[in-house]
Design brief:
By secondary structure, the protein is α/β, with parallel strands linked by helices. Helices cover 42% and strands 16% of the residues. The strands form 3 sheets. The protein has a 6-stranded parallel beta sheet with strand order 1-11-8-7-5-6. The chain has a 3-stranded parallel beta sheet with strand order 3-2-4, sandwiched between helices. The protein has a two-stranded antiparallel sheet with strand order 9-10. The structure holds nicotinamide-adenine-dinucleotide. Nicotinamide-adenine-dinucleotide binds next to helix 10.
């Protein structure tokens, strides 16, 4: 049998499409209302990976015409001072989105910090109020990485209705919201979540029409875990020496799957694009509130 190569789902190109759309809509918002969408990023300490992520987010904001400011804090900052900054950003009318770059140093309670972000400025969509709204199918913001995956599926023309989607990983940031989005009305996938205690994970994965890996283990998904013709989405970003590799054995998978995302250049660029989208949405919420106040 000839080896058929999977279609490569180009996250860079799809992310650019989304960012260009955000740029156009941002200009429209500015000309209609004078509101410039503004993302405030908080970076605690100087973890090199976090530095890169924050810099990329800032650069993407500026390129799309959004405003972005960075609040750099010393790694030794205490919980109370960080909370004070979050409260100040919450009440700053010029700030529409707040992003606290994770991970925070171990002495800080990340959950308390994230919960303190005003839900209407929670552009990472980690606040329980936003998680609840998403689960109920009336989202305010969607969590960036799972939303990026959904956008990739949509723009690649992957059919989801009635398909079996298997998500590997149950984190609050990727796995759980990913499954929640796939099961929503209108998307209509039948969803299975696998995790570290799943029995015979290979057998479960082999039943997937759409297989989404968010495990954090390099090349966790082997070729024999993939159903021929499946769509494979690799969320993993793992540093192996100098290289970034995904959670999927790309070489093996690309001769079995019908479509696959590469690492890098797959899901990664989508995450930032969706963050810009959420920041624009947050600014529009302010526009709507001021229009509503004007008409009352
Ligand atoms: P996490 O460590 O919080 O969660 C990993 C999940 O994998 C857990 O739920 C666990 O149950 C599951 N798991 C671990 N070992 C397993 C095993 N042996 N068998 C089956 N399941 C197992 O990680 P996360 O934050 O969800 O991130 C997952 C990966 O995605 C990481 O590589 C991370 O770097 C990457 N990531 C990428 C982006 C992006 O923008 N592309 C964003 C967030 C995370």
């Amino acid at each position: 049998m000839p080896i058929v190569s999977a279609q490569i789902i180009d996250g860079k190109a799809i992310a650019e499409t989304v960012r260009n759309q955000v740029a156009v809509e941002t200009q429209r918002l500015i000309s209609e209302s004078g509101i410039i969408p503004h993302l405030a990023a908080v970076l605690v300490g100087n973890d090199p990976a976090s530095e890169v992520y924050v810099r990329n987010k800032e650069r993407a904001c500026h390129k799309a015409g959004l405003k972005s400011t960075l609040h750099r804090l010393d790694a030794t900052i205490n919980q109370a001072k960080l909370l004070t900054l979050v409260h100040a950003l919450n009440s700053d009318p010029d700030v529409h989105g707040i992003l606290v770059q994770l991970p925070l140093p171990k002495h800080l309670d990340s959950m308390q910090i994230l919960d303190a972000i005003a839900p209407t400025k929670d552009v990472d969509a980690f606040h329980p109020e936003n998680t609840g709204l998403m689960l109920q199918g009336r989202p305010r913001f969607l969590p960036c990485t799972p939303a990026g995956v959904m956008k990739m599926l949509e723009l690649t023309g992957v059919r989801t209705a009635g398909k079996h989607a298997v998500v590997i990983g149950r984190s609050d940031i990727v796995g759980k919201p990913m499954a929640a989005l796939l099961v929503q009305k209108g998307i209509d996938a039948t969803v299975t979540i696998c995790h570290s205690r799943t029995a015979d994970i290979g057998a479960v994965c082999r039943t997937a029409d759409i297989l989404i890996a968010a495990v954090g283990i390099p090349k966790f998904v082997k070729g024999d875990m993939i159903k021929p013709g499946a769509v494979v989405i690799d969320v993993g970003i793992n540093r192996v020496g100098e290289r970034l590799v995904g959670d999927v054995d790309y070489a093996a998978a690309s001769s079995i799957a019908s479509a696959i995302t590469p690492v890098p250049g797959g899901v990664g660029p989508m995450t930032i694009a969706m963050l810009l989208q959420n920041t624009l949405t947050a600014a529009r919420l302010v526009q709507k509130r001021s229009q509503a106040a004007f008409t009352h």
